[in-house]
Amino acid sequence: MNSQKEFFKKLNEDRLIASIKNPKSLDQFLQTEIQSAFLLTGNISVIKRYVDLLKKHNRFVFLHIEKIPGISYDREGLKFISKFVQPTGIVSTKSSIIQSAKKEGLLTIQRLFLIDSDAVQNGLRTVREIEPDLLEVMPALMPEMISKLKKELKVPIITGGMIQSQQHIDAALKSGAIAVSTGKPWLWHVQLSKSVSSKMN
What we know:
It is built from 8 helices and 8 strands. Strands 1-2-3-4-5-6-7-8 form an 8-stranded parallel β-barrel, surrounded by 7 helices.
């Protein structure tokens, strides 16, 4: 499959990531030109089939571990994902999972919910310690917080959650996010404004 460098190259071109929450969305995603997806559907018995299908279409696929029933969160579970399922990487809110996934050679995306100031400070500390490949902050409708985190962290930031329109996507990208994730198929075809479709910093 394509390299980590190729993933970032494609992400730079798309600026969008599809969050796939059901099998129907999987089919809809394959009809788009977006190259990257978060997989939040399936279970241990079908997840490899889903991943293989996406890879067959040259897509980058990240498993949201906590959303896939039947897969354990321990080191052995991550070994199973890395050696057998073989996605591009994983998404998780748990720093222990991020650490284990990194040891197994998977790309890692730490998800952080901006609930309050304590959550932000704890998140900053965790990201500096764990050093995931990317940080996803949620919800996306807080551009000032995206700008703040971008200034304080070296980790590339993506964002998602509560996105309802192309304007929301544009605002998140203008604030410094390198990409936006959304589970709404009608937004997988948006044309980004010229001011936010340029290359990542």
